[in-house]
Amino acid sequence: MVSKKWTALLSVLSVRSVYAEANATQLYGTWSSKSNQVFTGPGFYDPVDELLIEPALPGISYSFTEDGWFEEATYQITSNPQKPECPEASLIFQHGTFELMDNGTLILTPITVDGRQLYSSPCDDDGVSTYTRYNQTETFKSFAMYLDSYHGIYRLDLYQFDGSPMQPLYLAYQPPMMLPTETLNPTETSSSETTGSSLKKRSLRDLVIRNLENKHKTNAVKTNPHKLFLSADTLWYASATMLGIGSIVFLAC
Ligand SMILES: *[C@@H]1O[C@H](CO)[C@@H](O)[C@H](O)[C@H]1NC(C)=O
Ligand SMILES: *[C@@H]1O[C@H](CO)[C@@H](O)[C@H](O)[C@H]1NC(C)=O
Ligand SMILES: *[C@@H]1O[C@H](CO)[C@@H](O)[C@H](O)[C@H]1NC(C)=O
User: Fold this and answer.
1) How much is the pLDDT for 22?
2) Where is the signal peptide (predicted)?
3) Angle at Cα 169 formed by Cα 239 and Cα 62, nearest 5°?
4) What pLDDT digit, counting tens, does each position of 10-57 carry?
């Protein structure tokens, strides 16, 4: 009886917090989707070598500071129903400033010169991924942050401009794990050829070491040490890993 009462109380509380007035403070932290493998910060994008680092599993991550900065990291695999053996994959990094409007709309405005995309379509590109700049303003109609009483962690639901929900995000770090909140690649015409050749000279081993070094340069605090969600369906994606670091072509843009 007692536990039933508690359950009822908890569900009332969590429903109430869903409808609490959305405010920018609630966004503070690093949020990651269910696979809990994709995080913003130096483990995803290395601004010195302008490298995107492929996570073990697909997912998305957003970080927000208390002073109006955001960072985004996504690793998405899109299946092709006609050719199931030909999924497309993309890695995207963006950062910049965000604004919460009075009507609850959240607008993320990236620093145009800093965004990067690594895109792979193995059936059409002979296994050679393309690396380009990326600049896409994102508008979310609304969001809701609340304690997910089932998983016992904070959850963030972002609703796209048409009202459809994004996959749920869970709080992973607070303070957030982010790259410096400033323009990282100030030149409008950064030479992608230079980037390409400097990358080719580096071995995978160097890249992994750099990745590990970068991971220690952060004051982020992990809030969710357990891999709560790793399950059979996410493991399927592990075998779908497809953006090989060895085969990348750099497009001037
Ligand atoms: C914003 O939301 C947080 C968490 O729900 C709350 O503690 C804080 O008082 C709110 N701030 C404002 C200005 O409403
Ligand atoms: C909220 O306001 C912004 C600008 O003030 C506008 O662009 C947006 O369309 C509005 N959102 C909704 C859902 O009305
Ligand atoms: C970046 O995107 C915004 C809108 O999404 C556009 O207004 C702006 O011109 C773009 N900047 C560059 C350099 O492409």
Assistant:
1) 81
2) 1-20
3) 90
4) 444 444 444 457 899 999 999 999 989 999 999 999 998 889 999 999
Q: How far apart, in whole angstroms, are the C-alpha atoms of residue 96 and residue 63?
A: 11
Ligand 2 neighbourhood includes 101 CB (under 6 angstroms): yes
pLDDT at 194: 35
Which pLDDT value is given to residue 206? 54
Q: Output the six-digit token pair for 9.
A: 């109380």
Ligand 2 centre to CA of 104 (Å) is 8
Q: From ligand 1's centre to the CA of 24, what distance in Å?
A: 8
> How high is the pLDDT of residue 142?
96
Pairing state between β 129-133 and 138-148: unpaired
